[in-house]
Amino acid sequence: NLYYMNYRDQLVLTGRINDVGAYARTNIPESYRAGIELSGSMIFNQYLTCFGSATVSRNRVRHFTEFVDDYDNGTQKQYTYNETDLSYSPSLIASAGLAIMPLKKLSISLDGKYVSRQYLDNTSRKERSLHPFLVSNVKIDYEWKITEKINASFFIQGNNLFSEMYAPNGYTFSYIYGGQATTENYYYPMAPFNILAGIKISIE
């Protein structure tokens, strides 16, 4: 799948403060997203299937003005950027996995997902970004027939198998104080290895 989305007046945060002291969203006149999405799977036999997907994209703001608080003077400074990355828009997302069915109603799947660098604002500054990350998960599914009319399914899933230390989200705040520009980043870290299990019972 190929796509191109051309935006007019997209709302984004710029750091500008409105007349009641709140951070305002501003319409960016021109921005766009363009990319290619690929997905596929291959069934080797009744026991083994592999699958994968990838999205490669370019997500840009054509012209962007950043407003930074200047506490020394009680004003804000403006910085202009051209062709910068849209915030929280990785240029590459890819995943791949294997599904094994050793028994008719038992399946075991292993998958991995990679997300490239994401920026916390629209300035494309590396010091205001989320690091790329790769996480792997494993899942076991089993179905069985309890009675003629009652069916049950059970799953257990191990997330972040290798306890990757990563944060998929966060925010940034910049200001000038004492003649020095400071940027503070805040992150929402994900849990290391964790387990999720569930059971479903259906009655016909």
Q: What structural class should be given to the helix and strand makeup?
A: mainly beta
- The percent range for strand residues is over 45%
Number of β-strand runs: 13
Could you tell me the radius of gyration in angstroms?
23 Å
Helical proportion, percent range: under 10%
How far apart the termini lie comes to: 39 Å
What is the 3D form?
elongated
Main sheet record? 11 strands, mixed
Number of helices: 0
SSE succession: EEEEEEEEEEEEE
Poorly predicted ranges (pLDDT <50, ≥5 residues)? none
Structure in a nutshell:
The protein has 204 residues and is an all-beta fold. It has strands at 2-17, 23-43, 48-70, 75-85, 92-103, 106-115, 118-119, 129-130, 133-145, 150-159, 170-177, 180-187, 194-203. It is elongated, with a radius of gyration of 23 Å.
